[in-house]
Amino acid sequence: MSAETVPTGIRIARLWLAGRGLAEVPPTPGLAARLTVRRRARVAAAVALAVFLVAVALVNVAQLPSDATDDELGAGRLVALLGLVALVLALVLTLSLLDRWVWRVDQRAAAALARRAAHPVRPDWRSVLGRARAAFLVTTFAAATVLAIANLVVRDSTARYAAIIQVVGLCGLAVGTALQLRHVLTRPVVADDENSLTVDHLMRVEDAREVAVPTAVWSLPVVSVFATGLDSWNYAWLAFIVLSVVALVAITVATARGAR
């Protein structure tokens, strides 16, 4: 078959395999479909997170007229926060539906197999995500939550409002991340031989590590608490973002050789 007649999905699958040292494994239509749906689901998830962050920014900057009373200001902020809660629920639902989309494609690929291979050891979070990345993810969410609560407790009303937005956003992101990781860890193996077992496990590892990059957590302060002006608290947020990015890079470099 000439290069011109090879379907795009098969070419992408071949490149994916070659990039992971599995050039000897033949690309199959099932693998092509699984890689395609993951690529599209990641784009859709990125768009959903971007929309969510824009909405958080709009909630944060939306202000009533300067002559509004304290009661009007409080009521307006309450309505905005209720809208933000609805957006959080919509984000979690969207991420869950995207995971279900990926699962359905995996299920169809599994149904097309003449036989099913059982993984010798059920993949768990240690082999899929790794201790270092799991600890990094938990620490990142914990540190962001501590900073948000500190802003909520000790700063003025404007900064506290931004901190409330931050806490609500973090809760939504934490739930969405947990649901996505649960899906990656619990989905059935789609394989019919040793090579496809390796491919399935590598795909699971990449899915988990993609979910575990806390890009939205780093972006939340930019669209919420930074709007209150730069001060010692916001410098702490900047330090948190820089340090966590450096930590992720260090973990990625340290675990690169052991990914396979």
Describe the fold and architecture:
The chain is an all-alpha fold and 260 residues long. The chain has one domain (43-97, 125-255). 75% of the residues lie in helices and 0% in strands. It is built from nine helices and no strands. Helix 1 (8-19) packs across helix 2 (29-61). The longest helix is centred in the middle third of the chain and has 42 residues, at 70-111.
- Looking at the structure, what is the overall shape? elongated
Low-confidence stretches: none
Instruction: Let me know the average pLDDT.
Output: 83
* Alpha-beta content class: mainly alpha
The helix count comes to 9
Proportion in β-strands:
under 5%
Major pleated sheet = none
The number of distinct structural domains comes to 1
Q: Helix and strand layout, with pairings?
A:
Layout: H1 8-19, H2 29-61, H3 70-111, H4 125-128, H5 131-154, H6 157-186, H7 194-211, H8 215-223, H9 232-255
Helix pairs in contact: 1-2, 2-3, 2-8, 3-6, 5-6, 5-9, 6-7, 6-8
Characteristic key phrases:
elongated, 260 residues, single chain, membrane, mainly alpha, transmembrane
Q: What does this entry show, briefly?
A:
With 260 residues, the chain is mainly α. It contains nine helices and no strands. The longest helix is centred in the middle third of the chain and has 42 residues.
